[in-house]
């Protein structure tokens, strides 16, 4: 399997760690990043760097992109120097960014015109999971195509799920983000009331983490929130984007999601306050402000 | 310590298991329940049954009550045949029901007039925790009183927290319920959208339970929801009550809790549909109905 040539586009925090795991698994690799300086760790290892997404496609069997949002994916795949212009027989494109099922279907349709197979394969597990190769990867697209690239995905992730047709990978990721977003609301509301009611948040943490209130959010984010550490793991602006896509799909399907809608509105306010580049746990700052708590 | 005579009032699912653990720990015990038949397992063990809460108080050093809501506590403690009429020097009353900080302060004040010490000590951990003696118990009231009864609490729970003054036990419990309620909203919204978007909920469960969306709610309730099992662990009507108390306190303190407010409104609707005696996970039925999903 290792003779599959892999091209990787987008060497941010997540992408660089994922590409490095593909290299370590023994696949021939070529990389591209808009900001050239981020390719340096790869250059040092003798990994070739392409001049454009087009060149990545020309020199690969499978192209993976891990960029921020749908417009970035569109430029990388379909833009003037995009992957589509390097299309050749058997090329498979895997978009591992998070956007929407509608975007995935659009990318699949456009690339399909050039005979290129497309999979949407967003991930969860954060920068830690990317580094350790323990991501959960949710894949939409043809099952045969999924099977062909599975060894590459297994270099990056631990739980690899075929979610169904093109778009279903994104859909499954957005469902995850609904839960992640609302769980943050839960902790922020409890902490805000605790503060005003004079309850020691250390004691609140003990109660939540030992009982029915326990969650990844409590275990991983609440200690940061207690310390006033709002640096990103996962950026508030990115969660806002994901909730927006989730609601666009819900609106199209007439699914009433009042909790998700409320959570998006609060993240809109957080981004408007200039805190979009902070971690999702910065939602607590909004709650403290609404409650007149001055803690930092 | 074991010569402390304990009286236990309220032998429901939780109370009977908790009283039994006190008995097993070796404390002399007397019990009372409004519906006499529920005392039978205690009678069989030779445990005395009182005719009234008043008699329980007369024959005990420490009286524990575990009943449903504040009006029940008021009747048991302050009613015509209540604990207060059996008050004697050194009597301690522990209310382990969940109600509000305001109620706890009221009970403490009224009992204080008769020289009775009061602790509010609500629990989390459900019927399983009650049987296994692994409850989390959150105690409000004087520290010296807390220390005196701690051996009794340790017979029922694993994590025993002194939360502060009278009322703070209830407050800490209500904060827990905020998180429990909103976490349920999160799972119900994701499942409703999954259903309409054609995503396999088994796959959604895999994603949530292996990543940042993981929670007690996902682990314990989501499998029930997937099977259409809405029998109570914890009743929807009780969660509704707890959220109402949480919001009353938030309103008094001017703490803005839009997620808790929304969750209460949805549980109001669930109770209005006649589903208050179902488990809290029946919230999914409301979401499916709003989305036009017919699954059961």
TrEMBL record, chains A, B:
Record keywords: NAD, Oxidoreductase
InterPro entries linked to this entry: 3-OH-isobutyrate_DH-rel_CS (IPR002204), 6-PGluconate_DH-like_C_sf (IPR008927), 6PGD_dom2 (IPR013328), 6PGDH_NADP-bd (IPR006115), HIBADH-like_NADP-bd (IPR029154), HIBADH-related (IPR015815), NAD(P)-bd_dom_sf (IPR036291)
Domain 3-hydroxyisobutyrate dehydrogenase-like NAD-binding: 167-287
Gene3D superfamilies to which the protein is assigned, alphabetical: N-(1-d-carboxylethyl)-l-norvaline Dehydrogenase, domain 2, NAD(P)-binding Rossmann-like Domain
Domain of life of the source: Archaea
Gene Ontology MF term list: NAD binding; NADP binding; oxidoreductase activity
Keyword Nucleus: no
Annotated ranges, domain 6-phosphogluconate dehydrogenase NADP-binding: 5-164
Family under the similarity heading: Belongs to the HIBADH-related family.
Protein name: 6-phosphogluconate dehydrogenase
UniProt source species: Vulcanisaeta souniana JCM 11219
């Amino acid at each position: 399997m290792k003779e599959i040539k892999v091209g990787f586009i987008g060497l941010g925090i997540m992408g660089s760690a994922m590409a490095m795991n593909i290299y370590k698994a023994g696949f021939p690799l070529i990389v591209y990043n808009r900001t050239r300086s981020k390719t340096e760790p790869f250059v040092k290892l003798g990994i070739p760097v392409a001049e454009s997404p087009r060149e990545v496609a020309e020199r690969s069997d499978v192209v993976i992109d891990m960029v921020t949002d749908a417009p970035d994916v569109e430029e990388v795949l379909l833009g003037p120097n995009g992957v589509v212009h390097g299309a050749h027989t058997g090329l498979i494109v895997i978009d591992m960014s998070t956007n929407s099922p509608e975007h995935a279907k659009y990318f699949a349709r456009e690339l399909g015109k050039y005979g290129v197979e497309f999979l949407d394969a967003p991930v969860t597990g954060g920068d830690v999971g990317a580094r350790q190769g323990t991501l959960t990867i949710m894949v939409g697209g043809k099952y045969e195509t999924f099977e062909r690239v599975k060894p590459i995905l297994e270099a990056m992730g631990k739980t690899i799920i075929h979610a169904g047709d093109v778009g279903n990978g994104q859909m499954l990721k957005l469902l995850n983000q609904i839960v992640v977003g609302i769980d943050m609301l839960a902790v922020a509301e409890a902490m805000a009331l605790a503060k005003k009611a004079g309850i020691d948040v250390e004691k609140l943490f003990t109660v939540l983490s030992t009982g029915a209130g326990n969650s990844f959010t409590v275990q991983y984010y609440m200690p940061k929130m207690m310390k006033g550490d709002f640096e990103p793991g996962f950026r508030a602006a990115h969660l806002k984007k994901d909730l927006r896509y989730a609601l666009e799909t819900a609106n199209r399907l007439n699914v009433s999601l009042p909790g998700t809608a409320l959570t998006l509105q609060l993240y809109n306010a957080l981004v408007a306050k200039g805190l979009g580049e902070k971690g999702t746990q910065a939602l607590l700052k909004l709650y403290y402000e609404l409650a007149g708590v001055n803690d930092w």
